[in-house]
Design goal:
This is Alpha-L-glutamate ligase, RimK family. Helices cover about 30% and strands about 25% of the residues. By secondary structure, the chain is an alpha+beta fold. About 35% of the residues are buried.
Length: about 300
């Protein structure tokens, strides 16, 4: 059975589903951490060493890029870039991961391609950030502060009239201010949407009902299946195209005036909650698309 590296530090439920899906197609998924891969740039070497692989595989499935220092993260992304240069199909590749793990670049690309996304500001200056916050809040336009890197709603904070600004602000956002205008989906009936896109096509979608304005499943959001077609999914497909990605989870919100906005594009999306409410086998669809790239 041909081995395929699934790059992750924590296989968990998603890893098991991928392993089963690869096995049904005659492949053995081997879980490898990017932390254990390294560059070997000596004479006669193949350039990248993946533990357990004597030769480079034809493709690699990216399920997780571990955090770390800036140097460590860059080195891990270098591995993904190097594999592509050496002819290994990386699913999703390093460029797609870079574009989406960095919320500023995601927002820029969405804006650049004319895709509806909340008004966003990214700056290093505390003075600029604080002036902007005061101006927006005085106009009764709440803002959301998010970490540039992060997922599952962790570290996200809402600032509205009457709230105290984070002090020290640097401690909350690590010296970089990613500020986004808050989109109200309905006080007390908070909800947003997750659309799963593979090869530019929406294959599943759900509504996430939150117990607060943060609707992530990891924070208690309740999932409800919905049709994966129509305006919502067209918008998700456009967002995936804008960041040029193999597969992703696109988070979308609808405001009180029925306008849709793309909040985020996730290159390493969880799909356990979504799988629980839809019939399509997401892991198998991912694996089949990945393998199809090699045919």
């Amino acid at each position: 059975m041909t081995k395929i590296p699934v790059l992750t530090d924590d296989p968990g439920w998603h890893g098991n589903r991928l392993k089963e899906a690869f096995a049904l197609r005659g492949y053995q998924a081997v879980f490898i951490s990017l932390k254990d891969c390294f560059l070997d740039l000596t004479a006669g070497s193949r350039g990248v060493v993946i533990p357990g692989f004597d030769t480079l595989p034809k493709f690699a499935f990216v399920r997780g890029v571990p955090g770390g220092t800036l140097q460590q993260v860059i080195a891990r992304l270098d591995i993904l870039h190097a594999l592509e240069i050496l002819g290994v199909k990386v699913y999703n590749n390093g460029r797609a991961v870079e574009r989406t793990v960095d919320k500023a670049m995601t927002s820029f690309l969405l804006h650049h391609h004319g895709i509806a996304t909340p008004d966003t500001w990214v700056c290093e200056s505390r003075h600029q950030a604080q002036s902007l916050m005061k101006k927006e809040i005085a106009a009764d336009r709440p803002l959301v502060i998010k970490p540039l890197f992060g997922s599952q709603g962790n570290g996200v904070r809402l600032i509205k009239q009457g709230d105290t600004l984070p002090v020290p602000m640097e401690a909350h956002v690590d010296g970089l201010y990613y500020l986004q205008r808050y989109i109200d989906s309905g006080e007390g009936t908070w909800h947003d949407y997750r659309v799963f896109v593979i090869r530019g096509k929406a294959i599943a979608a759900m509504v996430r009902h939150g117990e607060s304005w943060v609707n992530n499943v990891a924070l208690g959001g309740r999932c409800e299946a919905m049709a994966h077609d129509g305006e919502l999914c067209v918008l998700a497909e456009a967002a995936a195209k804008a960041v040029d990605i193999d597969y992703c989870g696109v988070d979308i919100i609808r405001d009180r005036h029925d306008k849709l906005y793309v909040l985020e594009v996730n290159s390493i999306p969880a799909w356990k909650g979504l799988q629980g409410v839809v019939d399509v086998d997401i892991a198998q669809t991912l694996v089949d698309d990945c393998l199809g790239l090699m045919s």
